[in-house]
Amino acid sequence: MKEFVSNSYKHSDLTGLIIGCAMKVHSTMGNGFQEVIYQRCLAIAMEKQGLRFSRELEMEIYYEGVNVGTRRVDFLVDDKIMVELKAISNLDDLHLAQALNYLEAYKLETGLLLNFGSKSLEIKRVTNEYKLKNQLNRQS
Q: Domain containing 20: what range?
């Protein structure tokens, strides 16, 4: 299964609104708070933008058809965009892998990984390229 970080612009209007909300939160709050504080602030900002979202949506994880546990994504926006928040010094490959795994578990194409922990807001757009390719093949 090929999954990787991409510069795909699928849902760019929606991701642009989410990023705008995140930038406002970061410029207002700065860095140094716990993730849950940024999560609450981002929920307020997205509500003010009229975005439809679920917060801390729990998803069952399966291995070979057997439920092996659950994970929670920070936000699912408009049933299309997964948003995962961090409040750490630097993002690394482990955080990107987690975001990609969430995309696959939720059967989504596009996600955002937002890190409020650094001096500047870190934004990573992640794309489930395997899902995108399969959808394109079905449409052909």
A: 10-139
**CATH classification at residue 128:** 3.40.1350
Task: Give the Cα separation of 44 and 38 in Å (integer).
Answer: 10
Does 5 map to a domain? no
Q: pTM of this prediction?
A: 0.83
Is residue 104 very low, low, confident or very high in pLDDT (cuts 50, 70, 90)? Answer: confident
pLDDT confidence of residue 5:
42
